[in-house]
Amino acid sequence: MNIRTLCLMLLLGSPFFATQAQETSSKGVWTLEEAVNYAVENNLTIQRAALNAEQSDAALLQSQINLAPTLNAQASHNYQFGRNADPTTNTFINQQIRTNNFGVQASVPLFNGFANRTSIKAQKSELDASKADIETARNDTRLSVAANYLNILLAKELLQRAQYQVANSQEQTERTRRLVDAGAAPEANLLELESQLATDELSVINAQNQLDLAELQLQQLLQLPVSDNFNVVTPELDDLLATDQIELSLPTAVYLEAVNTQPQIKAADLRVEGALWNLKVAKGQYYPRLSLNGSLFSGFSSARVRTLTSSSEPSSPNLIYIQTRDEGYLPVPASLFESGSSGSGGVEQVPFWEQINSNFNQSVGLSLTIPILNNWQARTNVANANINARRAQITAQETRNQLRQTIEQAYNDARAAAKRYAASQRQITALRENARVAEQRFNVGALNALDYSLSRNNLNNAESNLLEAKYDYIFKKKVLDFYEGKPIKL
């Protein structure tokens, strides 16, 4: 299925597309690579960029065809009434005339300031830039899918962590209830733990909502209808989390690599090139234009007649013999002639094909146009083309600056995320030990429920922060790797 057909199906709400999307969404578990590939194939922004490339391709083809001769045929069928000029004799007559004209005209541009050939180069640059735009849209889609995919993984781990906390709170609540019933613990401890259990259960609901939202966002990005069957594969991420030896490429080195590989830079440079070619096209208007022209023409007029001549041979009183073009002498009634006697003349309309043959003419010639004064149109076009070229150069520099700044930001983000993840790991180690000791003291009655819940909440918050830091580091590192030309995969 090509892009054009797919776009039409989307616009028309094709049942086929709806069925295909539903079947795809019901496939169940998605890997990151599958999600990225599907998004690249079905993203509407990419399809719009592909249509722009098709349009640029059509413009390039037209600029190439402009080098070919022009050839046009014409035909007319007319009736004239009243006083008119006979087109075959240029004499005025007062009668109805039927005319037919047939012609073929051709023209070949020999020289026009190299405008046509230069225009081909400009359109070629625009086509290549449009293709680079497609790859830019694909890269943007890949990054968006990766970010949403990691959001789902984070939400899943947060949900699992919240569920574990609920199970732990339920266990502690049941144990404390038994102690309270036995009179070995104050009822305030039970009330505090029941409050903590309710808080943990609310955390589960919030985590489930966050997971649902993350899955919804990825399905929408994939142009899929929402399905409860949607899920993603949780890959092994240990190899991506070695932060004891953080090795991040310096932004300068990444930029030098990205400036030669990122499609948005290529597209900007190609548009500068195309603008410079268009400037030369505009300057071509200063030059004379030379073309070779030729035509073929013939026509028919009902007013064209010829005189008929009778023979000198004896004839009957009522007949005379006239000479015809194809059949020699033929007898005709003498009443057809003004004198009615032998030797007088008559007229007949010249037949259609005989006129077409006799009126056939050909012409060939050269046409030279020298621009002298055309309301400064050529000069204005050159000035506008020069402005467009300078504007394209500014855009190219802005694109480079934006890429450099994005890479610098990605480097700082990745470094900060790695440090945050490493610090969160150190923090979680201390808090886990503190929570373990607090639980032991609480079980033997040496710590009240409020302080125990506080230590557990601190641990829960630290574990949530650790999960967020982990996935934040993974994504920021993947962004930096992406600008180095590495594929996005887990």
Describe the 3D structure:
This protein has helices at 3-12, 15-25, 32-42, 44-65, 115-181, 187-221, 251-258, 263-283, 352-359, 377-443, 449-483, and strands at residues 29-30, 70-80, 83-85, 92-94, 97-111, 231-232, 289-301, 305-309, 319-324, 328-333, 345-349, 361-369. It is of the alpha+beta class. It folds into two domains: 20-67 and 114-287 and 374-483, Outer membrane efflux proteins (OEP), CATH 1.20.1600; 70-111 and 291-369, no CATH class. It is elongated and about 145 Å long. InterPro entries: OMP_efflux, TolC-like.
Give a brief description.
The chain has 490 residues and is an alpha+beta fold. The chain has helices spanning 3-12, 15-25, 32-42, 44-65, 115-181, 187-221, 251-258, 263-283, 352-359, 377-443, 449-483, and strands at 29-30, 70-80, 83-85, 92-94, 97-111, 231-232, 289-301, 305-309, 319-324, 328-333, 345-349, 361-369. It folds into two domains: 20-67 and 114-287 and 374-483, Outer membrane efflux proteins (OEP), CATH 1.20.1600.10; 70-111 and 291-369, no CATH class.
Topology, pairings included?
Elements lengths: L2 H10 L2 H11 L3 E2 L1 H11 L1 H22 L4 E11 L2 E3 L6 E3 L2 E15 L3 H67 L5 H35 L9 E2 L18 H8 L4 H21 L5 E13 L3 E5 L9 E6 L3 E6 L11 E5 L2 H8 L1 E9 L7 H67 L5 H35 L7
Parallel strand pairs: 1-6
Antiparallel strand pairs: 2-5, 3-4, 5-7, 7-12, 8-11, 9-10
Helix pairs in contact: 3-5, 4-5, 5-6, 5-8, 5-11, 7-10, 8-10, 10-11
